[in-house]
Amino acid sequence: MADKASVSLPLQERIPAKNKLKRLSELLILSLLLSLLSYRLSSLSSNRSLVCLLALFCEAWFTFVWLLNVNVKWSPAIYKTNPDHLLNKFNIDELPAIDIFVTTADSELEPPIITVNTVLSLLAVDYPANRLACYVSDDGGSPKTYFSLIQASKFANRWIPFCRKYNVKVRAPFMYFSQEPDQSLNGLSLDFLRDWKEIKNEYEELRQTIEDMGKSHLPPLQGDDFVEFSNIERGNHQSIVKVLWENKDGKDGIPHLIYVSREKRPKHPHHFKAGALNVLIGCLYGSMTEDVLTGLRIQSMGWKSTFFNPSPPAFLGCAPTGGPASLMQYKRWATGLLEVLFDKDHSPVVGTLTKQLHFRQCLCYIKISIWALQSVPELLYSLLPSCCLITGTSFLPKVSEGQFLLAAMLFAGYNLYSLEEYKQCGKSWREWWNNQRMQRITAITAFLFGFLSVVFKLLGLSETIFEVTRKDQVHMPAHAEPGRFTFDGSPMFITGTMLVLVQITAIGVALVSWAGGAVGPETNGPGVAEMVCSGWVLITFWPFVRGLFGKGSYGIPWSVVIKAGVLAVLFLQLCKS
């Protein structure tokens, strides 16, 4: 044990963040929302139309969500870690042994090179190698994944000593070699540059070998190591455990690397994580977001968690790109989170009432659990302006009314608040705008279908299904247009396409009516607010507008357009009736 003076050095510090201006902004937006609700309630005495009642429901929901948002952001804190104090408090032999689990499920949707980079970065962490073990849990039982890990274990014998020798900070090879070393730095020696080029060439050979193998239809089954993989089916095989590397060189060697694929049988029910994870961690099931459900359970038992966001960011995943895969992932999350909310044993409400989950923690869990529920008021509120433009009615304050300034301040205030948040995180206004659009798109597409999935499950009509999303690699085809939204024939695109068709029709009808003087702001019909809102929805869903005229994966399939068109016509008829 280290001396008493060094024991007092903290391993981590909690630093409260300055938040007065942000709190003031949040309370201002909350007061504007409450004022809008007050206006809506007072206007019901003279106008009890279905449109106004739906507007009241949506605005009450948005106010509730904002209250949850204020709770989450009310007292932020920054956690600073001091890993350099670790050896001052403990001897190396006193450091705990750590087992790291890496999970993968499909070698086609999750390319092995991504798994390999994850494993290499974990094997190279600054920790005694004889106290570290990495287990790769392959739920697909893929010989391609196993072959890739064999190649990775060979490369690790060069990569890990290189990282230690030159104190490399970014230890995932694909990220480290994505940039050339800065030749202007005086600390770059000729030895480093030579080693850097050699290691990079070896990594490129590794990457090429794994990618060439991935393109092959025949998995590499040569050699005794692959006997267990011959004649096996993905859902029907014995357990496979392979020690790819055993540490025999102590703290300065290479950590243990073990491949695990659990036994699977067609008639035996199973979960999505390896049995070892179920036993050691206690993963819970009944939700497609079992990590959230498990975290909620252990927090309800009194476990305290810490949000740690180091610089540079250390906990980054590989998100799917393109519309279909991205929306599928959001649908899975929204479905799983809503399942957590309605779980009879581990709901956050149950955790607060009967266990040790704090009230504010409960509100935080509720905030993320209602993603799917958010789809209903968002879709309704997006359709209300177009309904008013078509029928010549109004549900928002007129420009001549004082409450119009209230609605305008709320619209501007919320957008400025969220933009400032992005600026504080070092993001650009373009990133803010892209995310604003994607939030609206996912709400009425992926979240809506996640909501329907849970409804059908609760009614006993169907079960939710875990779907693995494709993890794309960094490089893209030459013909690709980075940043452009892609489509396929998924039903999730129907609601977004329908919304765009309705907005285009509504704006066209309103402009014709205004030009003829039949209906407009002067005749107590739809005013500027409805037109602005309808135009804002159309701009937000501009990727769908482009998709109506796009080709290939950038165009919305005709099957989706026809179904959306039928829904749009039904909505227009409903408005007129």
What labels describe this entry?
54% helix; Cellulose synthase-like protein H3; 577 residues; transmembrane helix; four-stranded mixed β-sheet; Cellulose_synth; alpha/beta; globular; transmembrane; 6 strands; 6% strand; 2 domains; 21 helices
Q: Could you explain the architecture of this structure?
A:
The chain is α/β, with parallel strands linked by helices. Helices cover 54% and strands 6% of the residues. It has 21 helices and six strands. The strands form two sheets. Strands 3-4-6-5 form a four-stranded mixed beta sheet, with helices on one face. Strands 1-2 form a two-stranded antiparallel ribbon. Strand 3, helix 5 and strand 4 form a beta-alpha-beta unit. It is globular and about 85 Å long. The termini are far apart. The mean pLDDT is 84. It comes from Dendrobium catenatum. Keywords: Cell wall biogenesis/degradation, Glycosyltransferase, Membrane, Transferase, Transmembrane, Transmembrane helix.
What structural category characterises the helix and strand content? alpha/beta
**Tally of DSSP helical segments:** 21
Largest sheet descriptor? 4 strands, mixed
The coarse silhouette is globular
Tally of strands: 6
Rg, nearest Å: 28 Å
- SSE succession: HEHHEHEHEHHHEEHHHHHHHHHHHHH
Number of domains: 2
- Helix coverage percent of residues? 40-55%
Average pLDDT over all residues: 84
Uncertain spans: none
In whole angstroms, the N-to-C terminal distance is 80 Å
Biggest β-sheet: strands ordered side by side in the sheet:
3-4-6-5
What is the percentage of strand-forming residues?
5-15%
